[in-house]
Structures are given as structure tokens and as C-alpha cells.
Input
Amino acid sequence: MPGAPRIDNVKPAAALPGGEVSIVGAGFGGRNHARPVVHFGQAEASIVMAAESQIVARVPDGADGGAVRITLGSAESQPFPVALGAQIADNLHSVANPAVDSAGNVYVTFSGQRGQKVPVSLYKVTPSGSVKPFVTELMNPTGLVLDRDGMLYVSCRNDGTIHRISPDGRSMQWIEGMGTATGMAFDKIGNLYVGDRSGTIFKISRDREIFVFATLEPSMAAYHLAFGPGSDLYVTGPTTSSFDRVFRITPAGEVSVFYRGLGRPQGLAFDRVGNLYVAGSLRGHRGVVRLTPHANAELVMSGSGIVGLALLPSRRAIVATSSVLFALDWDVEGMPLYG
Output
């Protein structure tokens, strides 16, 4: 349509409800006193800022359809694709990444305040969207990780224990003495690494021998751990700084700073080509930040309160805020993703 607004780009190209995106194009200025209206699917967004070639809009609750469009009076833009998170569970208390098994079941915590015993400590969300209580007896479950055999490991920050959960929900204490146990990750040969947020990264061998692998400064919240495509371990642990770091630790336990400049960095995930995705803030904008192997940073998903994420081979992302679990189809650079 002649004179219709035109969308050329949307950044970031993925968002959760409440996240802000910048829409760049032309023809957004008012004509005959008309004001631009932004829709994500059928849901109308609130506009934070509007100019002739740029609009900053906040994604509304109930956004759907995977596209954004702008109307100005009777003129309407062509829809422009954007990946939107759809809520799959709420009333949760996540403090780290969710875990996803090979069948597509998602495991997520209700962690509670430290020392608080809650009725259900771990939930299972099936691929059909059914939310089921999975484990009830754990105190302050925090980190979640699956081994190659489909066994789920859960850290409990209240007493420093690690529990192993079978696929049918049977729980056993696997190890103790992990301090304020938070994030966890397995290496390629099955050693488990556990972050004690008071300053220690432990390495636990397959026969449950415990080693101090590395030491870092204490975290005010939790350590989050992930192995990259190589053998290096990457760790975040938010402090009181607004210019926090992502650490890289070699197999020999040597610690270096991979990137500095994130606000409250938390959950981590890698894609197959070695890009690292971090839940955190970049230059004051909250969401998920992508760090390339050369440590170039870009906000690629907008959303507040994100604490963790899982990237699936199906090019779907599961994203956890402190209380809600979202799913979105997210074709990150067209590459298959690690689970």
C-alpha cells in the first residue's frame, strides 16, 4: 500500500512478554494526527518511544503469531517475523537453567526461600504442556543437570547436597558437603562440576571422589556453569557489580575472564558453533546476551527476570524467569543447538 509504514528490522529478534524491542523502518510518523499502533499477533503493545523511523515497543501479555505489524490510520505494514515466548508454566521459583530430557520433558524447580520446605520442590512439564509434581522431598533445589543416561541431578543450596533422580521420580542423596551448592555441569567423560557460591568450583569424579577444581569470588546469588564445545568450563556468578564477568576455566583449573560487562549474569547455554548465551543485562537492557567465540556481545532476546535457558536441537528454546517458564521457536543463526 503506498504510504504504508514499512518495517525493515526488529532488534532483538526474540522477546518474552514485558520485553522491549526496537522496530526500525520508515513511515512511522503520524499523518492527519494518527498515531502508530503496534501489534504482536493480535495483542496490542504499549509504545515506549516513537519516531519517524524507529519505535520502541513493549511486548504485551498474550502476544502470539510470531510477527509484529504497525498500523497508522488505515495504512498497515507487512508483518515482520519475531520469535515470541509462550508461557507453558507459572507459579514456579526457578533460580537456574531448566533441564530438558531426550523425550522433551522439562524439569524446573520451586526452590523457595533458603530453609523453606515447599510442598513440591520439582515439577515436570511434558511435551503436551501438562505440569506435574515430580519430586516433593528436596529442600531448596537449585541447579539441574541430566547425565547421558537420563538421570537428573539436583543441587540443594540449603545443605550442600546433590541428589540423583531417576526418570520415574525416585530420589537418592548422591553426595554431600558442597557448601552452598548451586549450578552444575557434566564434562565429556562424566565428571560433575558443582558451584559453591561461597567461592569454590568442585569436581566430582564418576566414582564420587571430590576435588577443588577452581576458586572464584563469592556470588550474591548462584554460580551457573556450562561447558563449551571444547573442554573449557564457563561460569557466571552475579555480584554487587553492574559490570560482571563470565569466567573461562581450562581443564587444568586455570581461571581467566572471557567477557566483562554484564549486569547480573545467570544461566548459560551454548549453540553448536560455540556462541554462548547468557541470561543477563547488556548496557542496561535485560534479556539473553549472545557472546561469540571472540567475546563480541549482542542482546538477542529481550525479557526481564530471566534466570536460565535451554537450547534444544529442534531449534526451540525453553526460558525460565524467576516464576514463569516460556517456550519459543528460535532459529539461532539457522544452526542446530545443543540440548
About this structure: The longest strand covers residues 255-263.
